[in-house]
Design a protein that fits this description.
Elements: E1 16-19, E2 25-28, E3 32-33, E4 39-40, E5 43-46, H1 49-64, H2 76-88, H3 94-112, H4 122-134, H5 139-158, H6 185-195, H7 202-210, H8 214-218, E6 225-226, E7 231-234, E8 236-241, E9 271-276, E10 284-287, H9 290-309, H10 330-343, H11 353-364, H12 369-376, H13 381-387, H14 392-405
Antiparallel strand pairs: 1-2, 2-5, 3-4, 6-7, 7-10, 8-9
Length: 411
């Protein structure tokens, strides 16, 4: 069949709006051409004439702005897979990529993947979220899927594959921030003293006093440390990278018969590896307090002695490592954290709470917020506000000042 002849500009085509016997309002508008020259003419349905006119106006405006309507048959699954593999994987950390892939595979694509991208509506997305809530999934899980979907569809809008982002205004519950009760200054000091009897003992000073993330601390190398100037350069982080199948092309089913790449005889690309830090700001120099410098000097001497006794030593030159220089497993590191809290007779807490505690301690010491952000490697003030908590010492100080100001301190 020969292509239709294009006698006029697309901008000359106006929307067609009509009502059907069931009371619904329908709209159609020519927005582009298919490869065979026929029209791309999306069809929308709404409950009221006002709603359908608004949708048609949005389609018309985007078409006139140069929106690329090269096909109306691209599915949500095809687009989001392209976005993940081509736009996310080469440019974001493996941890971020794996997190996005998991949310797409487990929650989004099974429900929305087969839909045509240009037919996806806000209500379709809200039904997905409702089904996730009905399955007992947490607000945190649903909101995480929402963020991934909103980001992927946002790129479709940026690249003119969608008129509007239907996830941008979809209703979803905001997860509540977990209650964080940061450790007090004397509790931090007690934990650091107890840690002196543990392996890799300066690691906990860096967490509790300076707030280094787990991956940053475990990824430190001796070349990152300058004991002469008392500075530490955070350049890399240790991450567990998912193993890939080596027995076949990624687009085919694995020939080894194993579901996960970790069990493939020809696996590659995985394990505990040093990767780039989270953001540009995360790659930062830190000035160390003298007590941490002293701890690191002792730790270096002890590690050199350990290295001389070992028959084999890893080649990553890590400050904190296993008995043969190998990277520390993050699971083992978390177990050591909980053991430290128990030995110091402190309440149990997440490892990441050490970062909250460090930030709050610096706040209690009245360190300027700009310097706190620099030490922590934060780029946004709202991140600082989420981590820096008012601690008991500050509440007590405010109460004492009120006593003094009102003349009741000796009452």
């Amino acid at each position: 069949m020969s292509p239709k002849r294009r006698h006029t500009s697309l901008k000359d085509y106006k929307p067609t709006i009509y009502q059907t016997a069931d009371g619904k309002w329908h709209g159609r508008i020519i927005v582009g051409y298919k490869p065979d020259g026929s029209y791309i003419r999306p069809h929308r349905v709404r409950d009221t004439p006002r709603e359908i006119r608004q949708v048609m106006a949005e389609l018309q405006a985007r078409r006139d702005q140069g929106f690329i309507w090269n096909s109306d048959k691209v599915t949500v699954g095809a687009w989001l897979t392209h976005w993940l593999e081509v736009l996310i994987r080469p440019h974001r950390s493996h941890k971020t990529y794996a997190d996005y892939r998991s949310k797409l595979k487990c929650h989004i694509l099974p429900v929305l993947g087969g839909m045509t991208l240009t037919d996806l509506e806000r209500e379709d997305i809200e039904r997905l979220y409702a089904s996730m809530y009905a399955r007992g999934l947490s607000d945190y899980t649903v909101h995480g899927a929402h963020r991934v979907l909103r980001s992927g569809l946002g790129q479709a809008v940026e690249r003119k594959r969608l008129v509007v982002n239907p996830a941008a205004h979809a209703e979803v519950r905001e997860p509540e921030e977990p209650d964080i009760d940061p450790f007090l200054v004397d509790e931090i000091a007690a934990a650091i003293r107890v840690a002196r009897s543990m392996n890799n003992f300066p690691r906990w000073s860096l967490a509790l006093a300076l707030g280094l993330r787990q991956g940053e601390a475990l990824g430190l190398r001796w070349s990152d440390l300058n004991l002469g100037t008392g500075t530490l350069a955070v350049r890399k982080q240790l991450q567990r990278i998912t193993w890939e199948h080596g027995c076949t092309d990624p687009s085919d089913a694995p020939r080894c018969g194993k579901t996960y790449g970790a069990y493939c005889p020809d696996r590659h690309g995985g394990g505990l590896l040093l990767v780039k830090v989270k953001t540009h700001r995360s790659k930062r120099p830190i000035s160390l307090p003298k007590f941490i410098i002293d701890l690191l000097e002792v730790h270096r001497r002890e590690q050199l002695e350990q290295r001389m006794r070992a028959s084999h030593w890893g080649d990553m030159n890590l400050i904190f490592c296993g008995p043969e220089g190998q990277p520390l497993d993050p699971k083992h590191d978390r177990a050591q954290w909980h053991a430290l809290l128990a030995r110091a007779d402190l309440r149990d807490a997440r490892l990441h709470d050490a970062r909250h505690s460090a930030a709050s301690m610096l706040l209690a010491l009245e360190v300027d917020q700009r310097f706190v952000m620099d030490v922590m490697g934060w780029t946004e003030l709202r991140t600082a506000n989420r981590y820096m908590h008012v601690v008991a010492e500050q509440r007590r100080a405010v109460a004492d000042r009120l006593d003094h100001a009102l003349g009741f301190e000796h009452a």
